[in-house]
Amino acid sequence: MKKSKLRFECAEKLNKLPPYLLSSINKIKLKAYAKKLDVIDLGMGNSDIPTPRHIVERLCDTVTNHPNTMRYPQAKGMPKFRKIVSEWMTQRFGVKVDPETETLALIGSKEGIAHLCMAFLNPGDIALIPDPGYLVYYNGVVLAGGKVYGMSVLEKNNYLPDLTKIPENIARKAKIMFLNYPNNPTTAVVEDLNFFREVVKFAEKYNIIIVHDNAYSELTFDGYVAPSFLEVPGAKDVSVEFFSFSKMFSMPGWRVGFVVGNEYVIKHLTNFKSYVDFGIPTFIQLSALHALKEPGDSIKEIAKVFERRAEKFVKELNKIGWKAEKPKATMYLWTKIPEKFIKMGSLKFCEMLIRETGVVGLPGIGFGKHGEGYVRFSLVTHDNRFHDVCLRLKRLLKG
User: Which of the four CATH numbers 3.30.420.10, 3.40.50.2300, 3.30.43.10, 3.40.640.10 does domain 53-293 have?
Assistant: First the structure.
């Protein structure tokens, strides 16, 4: 094939993004597979738990018997979907949102967060993001032409940002603040609404949009119940909140979520989406609203699986001398790298982990500079495999 003499250049903003967290890890992982190594992949938060049967059956029935649901959908989500979401918010959190003006269907919360950045950030606008934090906050801001100010979320502060440490000149220029509790990657939770109250006051003072990512609201353990940011009086005046069916109902590949909250923000995010996508396929919306309306024990059962895995993994890790604590929520374990390996850094450590043990974890540095020294493991493999993981890690620690 003749090589083209033409030279193309991508947009400068793409070159401003850091190397994708998984790229170097994936390269080593593929080499491990090629060598026939028994890889145990605890990297990406990609649930291995099957979507509940009644949701799948609803999809099959809809696609088979209602061909009109395969036509173009409404970008903002069908009215029935938004109505059920509104009712769920009231039942679950005691929060009332208007299904017409304060509710929007999303092709997954990741897409919605990135689109919100594009809808509200002008070149040079500042966004406050947690460090460490979910990658789409940083990437969404950069792709929109905005500037990132990292809010340190440290273990000594229970992984809550100290709002008093944000410089006055930054706070006055900031347009958006991202928060995420229960948290990815640190698994941190808010024990009460006091921190959220502080955030609402901060947002009112500096005219900042608060974006609370509540994707893990239903993956909670030991009786902990995650709140909604919108439970705080005045929160709807300054914020929107994102939810995901990926975690709640183990539907990561279905790509469905929703955002609720401030009418002005929802309006302009809806407007932006109308230019770039057609929304969620109607047959998936009908399956998702069925899940919310008739959840049965699905949510509790999925949470129980991750809680059981967390307990087993933590117990096994501590048994081999790797200190770990059971999280109160999410599908992850966030642990410090063992002392003997701390100097090599989290990326080199995770690369070595794959090469020498076949176990895949994600380096903390990939989530921000304050993630250095940590590794995130996703609880996305069969329960029995965590014993295998720890047998391998034990050999590594003794080597």
Answer: 3.40.640.10
**224: nearest Cα among 250, 189, 179:** 189
Residues 202, 174: contact at Cβ < 8 Å? no
Supply the pLDDT for residue 232.
97
Written in H, E and C, the secondary structure of 337-351 is CCHHHHHHCHHHHHH
Identify the CATH number of the domain defined by range 12-50+299-398: 3.90.1150.10
What tokens appear for 299 in the block?
Answer: 């949510």
Say if residue 26 is exposed, middle or buried (CB neighbours under 10 Å; 0-12, 13-18, 19+).
middle
Span(s) in the chain for CATH 3.90.1150.10: 12-50+299-398
C-alpha 351/C-alpha 361 separation (Å) is: 9
Q: What is the DSSP string of 171-206?
A: HHHEEEEEE-SS-TTT----SSSHHHHHHHHHHHHH
pLDDT digits (tens, 9 = 90+) for 344-395: 999 999 999 999 899 999 999 999 999 999 999 999 999 999 999 999 999 9
Residue the block writes with tokens 């919100």: 116
Instruction: Assign 105 a pLDDT band (cuts: 50, 70, 90).
Output: very high
CA distance 37 to 71: 45
Overall size of the chain counted in residues: 399
Nearest of 139, 161, 165 to residue 152 by alpha carbon: 161
149: tokens are 């100010």
CA dist 219 and 260 (Å) reads 19
CA dihedral 345, 351, 357, 360 (to 10 degrees): 100
Q: Name beta bridge partners: 376.
A: 334, 362
Q: What is the pLDDT of residue 34?
A: 82
Among the ranges given (149-153, 251-255, 314-318), the one the predictor scored with the smallest mean pLDDT: 251-255
Q: What is the DSSP letter of 357?
A: H
The residue written with tokens 């947002």 in the block is 203
Residue of 174, 172, 185 whose CA lies nearest to 150? 174
What stretch(es) of the chain map to CATH 3.40.640.10?
Answer: 53-293
Q: Are 289 and 279 in contact (CB under 8 A)?
A: no
* Separation between Cα atoms, residue 56 and residue 47, nearest integer Å: 16
